[in-house]
Amino acid sequence: MGDKKLMKGNEAFAEAAIRSGCDAYFGYPITPQSEVMEYLAVQQPEKRTGMVLLQAESEVAAINMVYGAAGTGKRVMTSSSSPGISLKQEGVSYLCGSQLPCLILNVMRGGPGLGTIQPSQADYFQATKGGGHGDYRMIVLAPASVQEMADFVKLGFELAFKYRNPVTMLSDGIIGQMMEKVEMFPQQARFTEFDQSWATTGKTADRERNIITSLDLDPARHERHNIMLQAKYQKMRENEVRYEAIQCDDADYIMVAYGSCARICQKSMNLLRAKGIKAGLIRPITLFPFPSEILAEKAPRLNGILTVELSAGQMIEDVRLAVDGKVKVALHNRMGGMVPSPEDVVDAMIKSFSIK
Amino acid sequence: MEDKNSLYAQIVSPENLVYRKTPLMTEKPLSFCPGCGHGVAHRVIMEVIEEMGIQAETIGVAPVGCSVLAYEFMNIDMQQASHGRAPAVATGIKRCWPEKFVFTYQGDGDLAAIGTAETIHACNRGENIAIFFVNNGIYGMTGGQMAPTTLPGMRSSTTPYGRDVALMGNPLKITELVAMLPGTYMVARHSVHTPLAVRKFKKAARQAFENQKLNKGVSFIEVVSNCNSGWKMTPNDANKWMEQNMFPFFPPGDIKINGEMVTKTAKAE
Ligand SMILES: Cc1ncc(C[n+]2csc(CCOP(=O)(O)OP(=O)(O)O)c2C)c(N)n1
Ligand code: SF4
Hints:
heterodimer; A: alpha/beta; 5-stranded mixed sheet; 15 strands; 20% strand; B: 269 residues; alpha/beta; 8-stranded mixed sheet; two-stranded antiparallel ribbon; 10 strands; globular
């Protein structure tokens, strides 16, 4: 049994980190996620559980500290927001190439560049399609509540170690900043039960040395490494798709939205249903792997799909790929830190599909 | 097979051996150019780890540069870092294993150019790690481009007419710079081009690992070395050129011992 608390999303994430037995957090401040490190600092996790907390000199250093710490086989995490996540991409590519588990939280804000400090979802491509150099993928979890900001920490670590790969939590300024009731899971042991036979723990006489690297100067061998990585990402596609389908069974129209947009769309769905329009909502919980199958399955029986995004329309590409032209897909979006109202979404739905 | 009583067998018998390869260097042939100081520096560090009996407690961090493959030659657990980030990677390792020995091995392009921030901040935080900094005044691996440590007037593939300080800025004495920081406990400059120099470097390298037991901060050892390929010289000429040109600018010697600046500091040029 856990305990109930009223918390900010960022704080829930931080508390969940301590409770999930996280060994180390390395970060650098940026709005709107600075509360993560601030909360941890107040909690003194080094006293509570022995967890390491360190403010790095930059995001570049922070992600490379994560790389070093993750290489020791420990449960390691970092968090940042859009411009900081861009700086971390070099390290993320190395983490994927070297097959190191870790948890990365991105509380997205408006871009490009320094942009705004208001919520956005414009880092979808970066998170789901790579972001750094080379062919790699990460499981991307999209929390839509403060509860999920906490629960996905535990889930994220499990998936990171299951696949020996970084896991990203793609949140946004609304989810990070809003306060909600959250039921916290009990403290887990810091001792990690995951396989650590690959980690740099010091070479003992009874084993070969362990090496963490993404380098292989032999292209044939490096191609085999890439093929192996791709097979791993395929396994994620087969086993880790998560989504929520709300009132989709009788729906003529479906909205697809994640994170804070999914919250808005839930209200829009109720407003549409009150008007007699049978609307449903599919909320991807994993953005990679994307819940393509359920969309493909529903598409032939639908009159239209509306994606609602705080970006120029990035997830819509995955929705279109999934439905493969079998139904019209339209976009309602705001950018740069602006957020649509539930009524805006209702109007967009009616206009997009000329609903009488 | 050699006869056990042959002259050869007597010479290589353990009690007669005056030199052997440390088992902490793997069997893999070194990828360095013949005459390059990297190989000697590798061997010395591994000998120290062997002599201290800390193979099972040591984690090394390999850089980007000619020594990028250090983990292929060093028979210890290692992590390869992205260009310049080794001090941050070492920080992550050491914070998770505070009781273990952690070191980075980096070139001048790695440590003093792209990784300046990571170097200075790890040193300033006083991470309990050893940093080995091989300064050959040039980017070796990528084909001899200018490094922050390239001397004024020195030719490189990106300063084909010699480094013009007015255009390209001054060489960076990062070792003197980190010596000023309270987080460094030991700062020294050595070389590995003569038997005497090797012995001095080895003593310092041992001290760098011993210091980690004291938890006092960073031990930072620069090794002024050659890059005969990048400098386009024979190994012998490169070593002579190094003594005549590099040493006046990067003078070997102790800079900081036990957290105290040595009075006879290298004077700023
Ligand atoms: C991010 C990044 N930028 C550039 C490079 C290319 N690169 C590889 S080695 C190197 C220079 C290394 O020089 P140094 O550290 O002096 O080592 P040396 O080869 O001389 O031993 C550069 C620029 C890289 N690998 N990564
Ligand atoms: S290029 Fe220079 S630094 Fe690199 S191995 Fe050859 S001599 Fe050594």
